[in-house]
Amino acid sequence: MRLKVPVTEDFYYLRQVTLPEFGKEGQKKLKNSRVAVVGLGGLGAIAAMYLARSGVGELLVIDNDRVELLNVHRQILYDPEDVGLYKVDIAIDKLAKMNPLIKVEGIREKLTMDNVEDVLENVDVIVDGLDNMEGRYAINRYSVKHSVPFIFTGAIGLEGNIAIFHPPDTPCFECVFGGLGDEDLPATCDRGILTPTPAVFGVIEALETIKLLTGVGNTLKGKLLYIDLKYLTFDLITLHRPPSCPICRPE
């Protein structure tokens, strides 16, 4: 028999607010924030779950795909019984059950240059869970225009990288990854991916989001972290803006 336990902030977040560097003030900042997770695959599903449980006050999840059985081994927000259903619909339901103290909204659309202004309106941080460049370029244009932090992540096989772009303080995404198409990206159907790989990077995305919102510690702003999970090596690279960038530093 399941017990119906009343969910209150005092107890739900107790172990989190006990952190002296976080505390009640950090929890309040999370509660007053609005975060968008774009793409609910292996990365976005993990990031969304941790952000929901951490207490981000308004969580916006965006995806237009349905669950496939080959997703389930690594996209742990979903179960085999969810196959054929829209990811965003499942996410809204499950995330709200994980933490009834927050507001979860969903948009069942593909993010593009045409709808990015409406979809991402008034968000404080944008978390990338995408596997295509069109959506990432749309996020970058919004990030540059509105000075909203964009947490980029890519993971495949046993490796991945993560960076935070926040112009004008940092280079923009296209300073580093401009001019690429989807055909330039490695595909999981060819390379493969282990279950824990996206989890590692999705958790880091959530952690960096929390740090950005609360001011706890140092973040990856202006840096790219590459992790090779096969050999467990970590490389931190400082990113530099080129002399001219058509997006964030037009001539």
Structure description:
α7 links the parallel β4 and β5. Strands 3-2-1-4-5-6-7-8 form an eight-stranded mixed β-sheet, sandwiched between helices. The chain is α/β, with parallel strands linked by helices. The termini are far apart. It has one domain: Rossmann fold (3-Layer(aba) Sandwich). The chain has ten helices and eight strands. The mean pLDDT is 94.
List strands and helices in order, with pairings:
Layout: H1 9-12, H2 14-17, H3 23-31, E1 34-38, H4 42-54, E2 58-62, H5 87-98, E3 103-107, H6 116-119, E4 125-128, H7 133-146, E5 150-156, E6 159-165, H8 173-177, H9 188-191, H10 196-214, E7 223-228, E8 233-238
Parallel strand pairs: 1-2, 1-4, 2-3, 4-5
Antiparallel strand pairs: 5-6, 6-7, 7-8
